[in-house]
Amino acid sequence: MSAALAFEDVACVRGGRLLFEEVGFALGPGDALLVRGPNGVGKSSLIRIAAGLLPPAAGTVRVDGGRALLAEGIALDSELSLGEALRFWAGLEGRGHYLVDAENRVGLRSLSRVPVRLLSTGQRRRAGLARVIASGAPVWLLDEPANGLDSGAISMLEDIVARHRAEGGIAVVATHQPISLPGAQELTL
Ligand SMILES: Nc1ncnc2c1ncn2[C@@H]1O[C@H](COP(=O)(O)OP(=O)(O)OP(=O)(O)O)[C@@H](O)[C@H]1O
Fold this sequence. Notes:
Shape: globular
Protein name: Heme exporter protein A
Structural class: alpha/beta
Strand content: 25-35%
Domain ABC transporter: 5-187
InterPro entries: AAA+_ATPase (IPR003593), ABC_transporter-like_ATP-bd (IPR003439), ABC_transptr_haem_export_CcmA (IPR005895), P-loop_NTPase (IPR027417)
Keywords: ATP-binding, Cytochrome c-type biogenesis, Membrane, Nucleotide-binding, Translocase, Transport
GO molecular function, one term: transmembrane transporter activity
Bound molecules: adenosine-5'-triphosphate
């Protein structure tokens, strides 16, 4: 996987308020960044800037490779079965064969026919992660990915991110919860 994500002197303003400035990091294949800081400091905003959904107020963002975002919403059609909803995303990237693998890796294969709206909170979070896996994108942007996950599922999340990095992917993780990301760069806002 060829992948890169870099911020150079990035500033973020929301609602007329400066949240952060002069933020810089450079990530290449296999790298991860752990973003920490108190509520409201701008972690989600940084993730949105990295995703290209929010323009930086200053500075430059460089991205090489597709991006997959896991934010508060899981971006899956709630009326479709989990399998159908995931197929939409996997299909978009022409990677339908990743679908079953993604369901297996998040432990939801047995729920493939269940409508997304009936999934529990933790299962919805896992489904969002399956979408990220199925997208095949090298640059993962995960905003509070452990929300709603039990301890076993957090281990699963750690394994999934570790495998993604071992395959040359990049992960940016904003979280309040302790998540093991060996060798990750850390950024406290
Ligand atoms: N669309 C918006 N317009 C104006 N201000 C916003 C908007 N979205 C977020 N903000 C403000 O930006 C600030 C940072 O929000 P953000 O969600 O990035 O913080 P966070 O560090 O992720 O917080 P938390 O830990 O609570 O999730 C907050 O004060 C929030 O009110």
